[in-house]
Known about the structure:
By secondary structure, the protein is of the alpha+beta class.
Amino acid sequence: MKHIVIKKGFYKHWKHDPNGPKGNCCYEVLNASHSKVRQALGTEKDEIVIVYRPLYPSFVYEAGKHWDHKKLEEFLKPVLPAFEGGTTERYALVIDPEEIKILTAIRDVMYADEPKEIILAIPE
């Protein structure tokens, strides 16, 4: 069995603009989730997703301060941005104490009144 360690904390997506608004394309990784996915011939595969919440007003935030997820493979997969010469991490852990302080403040404001119920808008 292979073990992968993903730290809980704040991450910047590779599209983060350091000159843009604070928190743009930033997320707080909360946990992982497992789900059995049915495959061909009736077999099942354990799918692992990373659960996170945005620190900017994304679709899932606007829908009810919901959380989002990304398949583990996609979360870990490096990207090759067209404007850079090599690959970069899709999500990079924020380790700078000043940035963590800023992102913590953003999180505390955005999720201060997080709903106690899950309210879903289901298209008919």
